[in-house]
């Protein structure tokens, strides 16, 4: 039995040193060499002098190709590593390499009438892979005799086996019913924004069930927005495989990204480090061009800079890449507290303030609980959000992001317009019954139904437990208080991805009398749970006490007495 690993535990040292990111040698060297002989002979027609891959490529390309084709066991007819993922910066010949890999698979394939697919998110991206593949055929007399190119259909057919390589712009209609043995997905990051992409790609790759010799390869640059959907799922999974957190010998990822320490120090802005995510630097990538473009981008708005960083340096865009971000954003990731659930927060807090920021039917209903720790007096934050299912249609640009939060248990999607209010009031009632609730702080706008529902459990403005939190510039004290407590470490949170996203969407704008918090982008950049947190901070900063000194002990004693 062969033994191998697809993990690369020391990848950070390797990538800085320019060493290979694939640890194990090809499982079947003869298969790897036979494929390399084909691959290296293919011509890159649009490069100066039309060199072959063998003449033009850096060793990392050959390592990747050898790993793919060298995983095939000719005796059993099975490929032992079946799924591959390449994350690499733009202009590192990704689409051309994709074409070369699939042409090699077409030529090496033995199955009669086999189907090979290159799936691209758009027709333009599909052309980026098909044209170099077609050019490779036309540049070689032997291949011209062996393969038939049909430009209009973006297909290349093997005249002997009848196998067909198709390059398609993806949708459910184009991939439905496919039985492809070899599938390459180009620019996976674009699919991340498509809510139904996962189902579509599963349909496209379903043919591998009965074709054990097949493979699936995903290629991508980083997304110019925080990763989402199927792209985020693949990225997280292959990182865990690479890091040894998941033992999956049938999956291999090659990810050209900066080590964490270099990200934290912004060492990626040093041109001497451009090579880390650009292994083709000096060939298909010009260092001088990258330097010139970076200088231009540093003088521009962060939104365009983010695109450059994502595409050319493979920087994952997150909450720390906005020039008008909330100052607390820089400290937010550091204050995540493992195991901070709502139940834990309530069990260790002496008093709690709930914040609510409601939205319309195309918005989120933000809910935040801020508790003061009994012993340390640190502030602990837990948040959740609700939205109506119609938001997925009205806000299609963030639908896949919202579904990610739903899967993480941080967002509830409801189909009843009163279900969110009922669930929120239920949580507040439990907190109040425990004797912990100081008050509920709300953005008064548009909360008529919520106010009525709270009154039914005795939470009213007249009773002192329902407080209208100041909004706009008047919220400045809460904003400043939260950022100071994050900076000094006396405010901690549950590490919610939903909250990290919302914090990253915050924009701080100066006003005539101070500052106000608003959204980076109108409509799709939601911040409601963070605004709910600020509502709660408004009251918590006044050092409230629980009603009549109530504690958790009082709550449990009442339960025992009732029993």
Automatic annotation (TrEMBL):
Q: Coiled-coil regions in this chain?
A: none
The Terminase large subunit-like ATPase domain covers: 64-192
The domain of life for this entry's organism is Bacteria
Q: Where is the Terminase large subunit-like endonuclease domain?
A: 257-539
Instruction: Identify the InterPro entries for this entry.
Output: P-loop_NTPase (IPR027417), TerL_ATPase (IPR046461), TerL_nuclease (IPR046462), Terminase_largesu-like (IPR005021)
Which one Pfam family would you cite for this protein?
TerL_nuclease
Q: What is the name of the protein in this document?
A: Terminase large subunit
Species name: Aquamicrobium zhengzhouense
């Amino acid at each position: 039995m062969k033994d191998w690993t697809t993990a690369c535990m020391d990848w950070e040292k390797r990538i800085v040193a320019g060493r290979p990111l694939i640890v194990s040698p090809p499982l079947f060297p003869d298969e790897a060499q036979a494929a390399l002989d084909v691959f290296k002979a293919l011509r890159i027609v649009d490069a100066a002098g039309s060199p072959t891959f063998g003449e033009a490529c850096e060793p990392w390309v050959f390592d990747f190709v050898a790993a793919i084709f060298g995983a095939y066991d000719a005796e059993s007819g099975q490929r032992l590593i079946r799924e591959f993922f390449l994350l690499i910066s733009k202009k590192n010949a990704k689409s051309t390499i994709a074409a070369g890999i699939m042409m090699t698979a077409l030529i090496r394939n033995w199955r009669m009438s086999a189907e090979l697919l290159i799936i691209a998110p758009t027709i333009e991206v599909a052309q980026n892979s098909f044209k170099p593949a077609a050019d490779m055929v036309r540049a070689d007399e032997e291949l011209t005799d062996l393969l038939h190119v049909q430009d209009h259909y973006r297909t290349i057919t093997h005249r002997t086996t009848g196998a067909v390589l198709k390059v398609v712009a993806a949708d459910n209609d184009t991939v439905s019913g496919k039985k492809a043995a070899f599938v390459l997905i180009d620019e996976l990051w674009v699919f991340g924004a498509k809510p139904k992409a996962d189902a579509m790609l599963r349909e496209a790759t379903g043919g591998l069930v009965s074709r054990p010799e097949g493979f699936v390869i995903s290629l991508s640059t980083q997304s110019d927005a925080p990763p989402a959907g199927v792209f985020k799922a693949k990225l997280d999974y292959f990182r865990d495989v690479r890091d040894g957190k998941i033992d999956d010998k049938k999956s291999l990822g090659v990810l050209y990204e900066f080590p964490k320490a270099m990200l934290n120090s912004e060492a990626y802005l040093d041109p001497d480090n451009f090579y880390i995510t650009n292994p083709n630097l000096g060939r298909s990538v010009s260092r001088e061009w990258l330097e010139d473009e970076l200088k231009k981008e540093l003088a521009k708005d962060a939104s365009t800079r983010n695109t450059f960083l994502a595409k050319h340096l493979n920087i994952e865009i997150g909450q720390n890449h906005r020039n008008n971000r909330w100052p607390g954003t820089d400290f937010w990731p550091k204050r995540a507290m493992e195991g901070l659930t709502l139940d834990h927060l309530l069990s260790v807090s002496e008093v709690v303030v709930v914040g609510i920021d409601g939205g319309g039917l195309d918005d989120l209903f933000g809910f935040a609980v801020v508790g003061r720790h009994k012993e340390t007096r640190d502030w602990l934050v837990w948040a959740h959000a609700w939205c109506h299912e119609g938001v997925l249609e009205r806000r299609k640009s963030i639908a896949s992001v919202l579904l990610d939060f739903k899967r993480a248990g941080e967002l509830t999607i409801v189909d009843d317009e009163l279900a969110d209010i009922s669930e929120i009031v239920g949580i507040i009632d439990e907190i109040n019954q425990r004797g912990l609730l100081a008050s509920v702080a709300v953005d008064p706008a548009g909360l008529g139904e919520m106010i009525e529902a709270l009154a039914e459990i005795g939470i009213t403005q007249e009773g002192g437990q329902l407080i209208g939190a100041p909004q706009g510039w008047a919220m400045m004290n809460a904003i400043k208080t939260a950022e100071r407590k994050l900076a000094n470490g006396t405010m901690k949170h549950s590490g919610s991805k939903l909250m990290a996203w919302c914090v990253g969407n915050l924009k701080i704008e100066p006003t005539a009398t101070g500052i106000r918090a608003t959204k980076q982008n109108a409509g799709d950049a939601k911040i409601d749970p963070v605004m709910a947190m600020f509502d709660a901070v408004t009251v918590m900063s006044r050092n409230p006490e629980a009603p009549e000194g109530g504690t958790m002990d009082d709550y449990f004693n009442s339960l025992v007495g009732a029993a």
